[in-house]
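Entry 14: structure prediction run for DUF3149 domain-containing protein. Input pasted below.
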Amino acid sequence: MNVFFRDFFTDPVLFLSFGILGVVIVLCCFYVYYFIKKVQEAEVPE
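Run finished. Output tokens:
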């Protein structure tokens, strides 16, 4: 496990890959939350 953390902080490709993946996951969660919030607040036409 110690080797993984050493490689993670010394290898920029691995570091950026996990960083960009984290940003994508955060954006996906935000848009799911935003969509559900807008659907719940929408007015139903009569």
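Notes: The chain has a mean pLDDT of 89. Will compare against the previous run tomorrow.
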